[in-house]
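name: query_chain
kind: protein
chains: 1
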Amino acid sequence: MEHPGIPPQQPGQEFLEVKPPAKVEIYTFRFSSDCIRAKGLLDRLGVTYNEYIVDDDDINKEVMMKRAGGHTSVPQIFIDGKGIGGYAELQKLASVGELEALLRLPQ
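structure:
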């Protein structure tokens, strides 16, 4: 059956499921070198993220600490709500080829 606006499927042709990109949140200090590096890596990959600058924001700093199991170091990075740690962990995921899949980036 044909649907307006959708091309007919050819034999042997399959539909690819397109998943939305992962939700990325990063808690940072303005002048932290690890925060700058982490954001740079995400930017190079074309990732959109929500940044919470916690230098002078006690409320978001408290939220970060609760979400990160009491960790106070920055950055604290969350992908789809799951804490992955900081820049070192982000870089490690990238170096072993797991970050793109975790972020659901096009291959």
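note: The chain has a mean pLDDT of 91.
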